Records
---
Amino acid sequence: MITMLLTIAVSASALSYSRARTQALFLTDKMAYELNLTDDQYNACYEINLDYYLSISVEGDLFGVYWTRRNQDLSYVLSPSQYAFYTAATYFYRPVTWVSRAFHYVIYDRYNKNRFYRKAPSVYGTYRGGNRMYSSSPYKGRVFTTKNEPRKNVVAPKQQPQQTQKSWRNNSNFPQKSRSQAVKEGNRQAQQDMRQMPQRQVNNAGGNNSQRQMNNGGDKKQSQGISVGRTNKPTGNTKQGGRR
């Protein structure tokens, strides 16, 4: 009986930042490929996914307040066609389910672990969560580049014929980068972007990172039982017609 209780407690515990970060990067990379995200969309989607993963502790969290908030935030980031694709793809729309008293990450039913299409987003090394704590969405009103349309007729690696799966290298339908390679390339790109920014923007970026660290500290307090988000639904307006 004690062993069973311990198993349930471990299975249902909140994700650590490291684990949440890993899951958010993998999911967002696949969203970037299938939805054909631009770089600014890629960054925002990573932030939103990380906040969602940091918010789940028990089964009831999976499709609760923060899941609704995730969908709301993404509706401001994605184009109408991208959002329609997102809601129709259950592996993106409901990325975590509850199976045998533990979290099940649906995206791994479609893609092999530790393989990536793109370099990590530039915010990967700096964003530690916290945007979900605002009463309204910080993505509302921002202008995102949405010139790309979702890819059509995507056949994921695990849906390919066995013979094709064995020859995945240099196949554009298969992610080629390892996680370490994706992170290294992402960090390099972030450093290049920082060097190219005017000094005022560099200072502002540093201030934003400090604020994110403060937000992350607030997250730790909330994980100890001072959660505002779980008792009060976010007050930001959502778009009408299926974007909830």
---
Amino acid sequence: MMVRKGGFEPPRLSAPPPQDGVSASSTTSALEPRACELNPQGQLLPASRLSDPEVRYLYTRPIALVQDRASGDSGGRAIALLPQRKRMSVRDHLRITAAALRHWAIAQAQDSLAVGLLWLIGLWIIRVPWAPLWAFLAAVLQIVPHIGPVLGLLGPVLAAALHSRDWEHPLYVLILYAVIVVIDGFFLQPYIMRRVARVPMWASILAPLALGFIIPFWGVLLAPPLLAVAYAYKARRGESKAQ
């Protein structure tokens, strides 16, 4: 008899032609699907939780066979459609990681362009000679943490000191550098990472600080791509649960 529990009803199969010594009625009753016990969430209970000890479910395929332990016959007493989680393959892992790193590279390029634009505007206001050159170098060196911004600072400071021959213009360049570092570290880069790589702003701010404390230099360098990959897997997990 078919027993419907939790809204789950296995499909019936048509009976095969009767064999010698076996009646058609006994074959049909053997092929009749048994009921699946479900929990309140609609998930299939494990074999140890089933009320019928002679029935176990094979989860190796999306279509599971109900096997009778007493007879040892695995020819398929009944077939029921069972839910099964799809495992990610190596190709899926590579695809997710590559997409996350691509998004991080795009975010890094946008951040470098924004920093170069800030340098160009600030040096133009201070009237430092060769401002486009120093802005371009600052944008390129922005990729290297700690050392890159400092190297991008040397050129404008020396140019301002040689051109103005006073201490005010180099001081203005140092103030401009500090303002750009604060804007980029606490606002610009976290915003771009959130928009492009879907990384929260708090994570973009705290993760480089924490990893930089644990692993100096390398922690700050590896924090943004690691965050992009981690939140890409988190987004994939959320999509799998939604499905």
